[in-house]
Amino acid sequence: MASSPLHQIGTRGYHATVCEFQGVPKIHIRKYIEIQDQEKIPTRYGIALNVDEWTQLTEMMPKLNEITVAMTEALISRKANNEHKQDTGKSNSELIMKHSSLKSKRNFKKPYVKHENYIAKQNH
Question: What is this structure's pTM?
Answer without folding.
Answer: 0.55
